[in-house]
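Example pasted here:
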Amino acid sequence: MSITPAASAGSRVSTLGTDRPIEFCPEEPLVESEGALDTTVGCDDQQDDIAQSRAFMTEFGVPEDTQDELITNALAGVLPLSEDPSAEPVSTESGENSDSTFQVLRYSDGSLAVREIEKSTAASGTRGVQAVTGCSHSGTTHFTTYSGCKIHYRTVVFSYGFYASFRIYGSGNDSVISAGSKFQEYSIGHSRLDWRLRIINQTEDPGNNAHIELSIRYLILPSVGEIQKGVRLRVGSNKYCQKTNTSNC
């Protein structure tokens, strides 16, 4: 999904190429809704977000001119194809490090999304799946407890998620133990208005998995509209996974 903003007198966007760093900073602080977590989006914070997004893209081989275009578009409120649930990737690549394997989905506009899969060290009958990593494992022959797991959504424009603990039973209903802290590493061209982390269903029951959901409401700069984002942890049927608006599990 993309939203094209109207022109704003109090903002500026660099041209592509040599004119860096790219900026898009309102002269006046943004006025946000009651109970908002962010009060302003300063140029320093924005440049830090851009630097983290560039580091992510560089890590996975996105050319510099493509980075410029994607960031400039995001700052103007135009989201890349990696944020569009209906878009199909043009290629899918795989890689790994000592702890995880990666699936890199690339789109025709040069954007990408990364799904990280933890190498399982858990008991037989359970497995780690996309974008749920860093878990500590303990338990018995009847169940495995996963503690401190990182549920992470990461694309060119957004990097956010939360920590959680849950339990997988060899025979029985899987369950969520706790929803821990939430985090946001960057959001390009979007100011977070509010966010909420909640347990939707504590224990798996027939036809309904256990769920934890992080929902986030963003304001698109410069104050031209809002977008709803989020990510879920789903636990049930002796497995667990991350669910987003662009991926199912």
